[in-house]
Amino acid sequence: MSPESTGQNEHYLRVFRRGFRTWRGNRPFWAGLFTMVGGLPIAYFPYANMHLGNVTLAMSTTAGAGSLIIGVLLITLGLTMWFHHIVRVFAGVAAILLALISIPVANIGGFLIGFLFSLLGGALSISWAPGEPKPTAAHGGAQGAVFKDAGSGTQEPEPEFQSAASVPQQPQQYDATAEVEGGRHRGE
Questions:
Q1: Rounded distance, CA 148 to CA 170, Å?
Q2: What is the C-alpha separation between 183 and 177, in angstroms, rounded?
Q3: Of 1, 136, 143, 154, which residue is most buried, by most CB within 10 angstroms?
Q4: Tell me: the pLDDT tens digits for 99-131?
């Protein structure tokens, strides 16, 4: 270990923050967060009691079970966006439909707070796409383009093929001993 190595001396919060940032960048994080935040008021308000002095107002309605189901489904869809982001389009469409259903079922969509957050989360989930990896010099890109002279003075880019292994291949040498022995192996 050299004294110039800083990896072992980093603070654990900095390492956690960098790891969280990487994790967050590989999935529709904000879509899941908005969808879960939208599910909370939809599920909470039908069961909440508001106290005004000595008067208790119960906001319980006959649609309390429907509100709870919609809220729990929205929270589940938000977690699905985070941990199984391959189904982000389905989760986004389902979040938008549940947000629309929550308007007549769950106290005007959790007093429009849950409706708006769920609608925004669903739209963000549908529109999110995984990022493309940045091209490196070994895999090509603008720096790795090979040009050939066609004889007319113009240079055209030559098509570049990438294999699974980026190891340059050596041409095989001609083995004269196989021809002398009639193409058979020496062990025969």
A1: 21
A2: 8
A3: 136
A4: 999 998 888 878 899 999 999 999 999 999 887
Q: Is the torsion defined by CA of 39, 42, 47, 51 positive or negative?
A: positive
pLDDT digits 0-9 by tens, 12-52:
888 899 998 988 888 899 999 999 999 999 988 887 777 77
The DSSP H or E segment spanning 57 is strand 55-58
Assess contact for 113 and 45: CB atoms under 8 A.
no
Cβ–Cβ under 8 Å, residues 114 and 41: yes
Where residue 141 falls (left for φ over 0; alpha for ψ -120 to 50; beta otherwise) is left
Which tokens is 61 given? 């309605």
pTM above 0.90, yes or no: no
